[in-house]
Amino acid sequence: MFFDNKILVGQNADGGQIYIYPKMANRHGLIAGATGTGKTVTLKVLAESFADAGVPVFLADAKGDLQGMCQSGIQSEDMSKRIEYFNLNEKGFRFGNYTVNFWDVYGENGIPLRTTISEMGPLLLARIMGLNDTQTDILNIVFKIADDNALLLIDTKDLKSMLQYVAENSKELSTQYGNLPQQSLNVIIRAVISLEADGGEQFFAEPALNIKDWLTIDNSGRGLIQILECQKLMLNPKMYSMFLLWMISELYETLPEAGDLDKPKMVFFFDEAHMLFDQAPKVLLEKIEQVVKLIRSKGVGIYFITQNPSDIPGGVLSQLGNKIQHALRAYTPKEQKGMKAAAEGFRVNPSFDTYSVLSELGTGEALISVLDMDGVPTVVERAKVLPPQSKMGAISEAELKEAAERSMLYGKYNYYVDNESAYERLTAIREEEEVIRKQEEQAAIDAKIAQKEEALAQKEAQRAELKAQKEAERAKAQQGKAVKRAAKSVASTTAGTIGREVGKSVGKTMGGTFGKTLGGNVGSSLMRGIIGTFFK
């Protein structure tokens, strides 16, 4: 609880109270211990205390145990004993609820939590997708091409469309941006599809979260508590680590330098922190370590919650100044080695053996070491942790839905917007190119048809001309024959007449009718023969 302007965490057997000084709270911290030893209660106590101090808080809820923070705690026999043990009534302990916003990457149990591909950035995306250096460079170039062409990268379909566009036009783009091997582009496309399957399709969308919406206090001056529902998200370790890494990176890039403050601007609690580091590539671990080291100067404190301190890389663990270690169980040589390392991480208290006590701690007990006002770790203390003021455990689905919809941020983020971005622009360009291509194909077909029709028409014209020519020649020939026949007929008739007359004249001379007839026929035949021979 927040008491005397300090974060009261617990009390040792001698009645000594253990505080975290708000001025030292941004030196980060660790809450560790085996399952069932009280880590969640400790987490709630710290979160409530920071909120009471006016510090906004973010919590990753791995099991749904933190949902009850939106409701007031309930008096019970056990709670009464603990309140009396810590003498909390004199310190102003009151059961109460807190102003909580519930978030869910999948939008099922809270306000949808989203960001965009552009805000995630190529370097962080490349690390999450496990790309090598060459593929990372190519992804950087793809982002550059998108920027140069004013193509917004909002969701995964935008990124896929952009990659496909670059692949289709790699030869032309290579002259300006360098070599863009098809094989590497295909690898990145497959990685994006895998990211979609892991939940990226829901996470990368608009409206994107404005991290400044979390840096607020309520009307009573208490810090708002943001709870991310992680039960489903943690089934997908890649998605969970991607979200956590994006968030601390976003905070680091967004917030200005603050130096040493009287209290943090915001405190983050990451439950099941080992999921952030398991199987993470070296470059990713280096990025996390870098952010943890530098984000302190932005006034942000980060607290990791895990089962064993060995889950946290050494470079990160060394930055955690406030440590609350619940009981550890060591049944194997490896576990015993880990417990020994955990014990050696504390400043020695000559009153007890840290290693032995680690296995003896009961539920709600912990070994605690914090930073004093000079930033020096205190000697480790065995202490009991205070009880929380809000309700323990989960709430019903109906209550969760009601609490989420009651948030002032619900109306801002609880809808999906598919603004025009790279996918729509490139789809329109492809459709336009397809229309032009089809028009060109149709024009080519029409040209061929017109060419064939013209050739056919020319052939028909030639055929008609040839036919007309033949008809004319035939008519001329027939006309010549007719003239010949007419002339022959006239000649024949004339010859017959002349022949008859001549024959008659001859026959008359020869004597009698017989002579006339014979002379006429002979004369007529003779003349026809002569004329016929002439007109042939």
Largest sheet: 13 strands, mixed
Low-confidence stretches: none
Radius of gyration: 51 Å
Helix coverage percent of residues? 40-55%
How many separate helices?
18
Shape: rod-shaped
Question: Beta-strand percentage?
Answer: 5-15%
How does this structure look, described?
- There is one protein chain.
- With 536 residues, the chain is α/β, with parallel strands linked by helices.
- The model has no long low-confidence stretch (mean pLDDT 87).
- Strands 1, 2, 3, 4, 5, 6, 7, 8, 9, 10, 11, 12 and 13 form a 13-stranded mixed sheet that branches.
- It is built from 18 helices and 13 strands.
- The radius of gyration is 51 Å and the shape is rod-shaped.
List keywords for this structure.
13-stranded mixed sheet, 18 helices, 52% helix, rod-shaped
Compact summary:
The chain contains 18 helices and 13 strands. With about 525 residues, the protein is of the alpha/beta class.
SSE layout and pairing:
Blueprint: E1 2-3, E2 6-12, E3 17-20, E4 29-32, H1 39-52, E5 57-61, H2 77-85, E6 100-104, E7 111-112, H3 117-120, H4 122-129, H5 133-148, H6 156-168, H7 170-177, H8 182-203, E8 225-229, H9 237-254, E9 266-270, H10 274-277, H11 282-295, E10 300-306, H12 314-317, E11 322-325, H13 333-344, H14 354-358, E12 365-369, E13 381-385, H15 397-406, H16 410-413, H17 422-510, H18 512-535
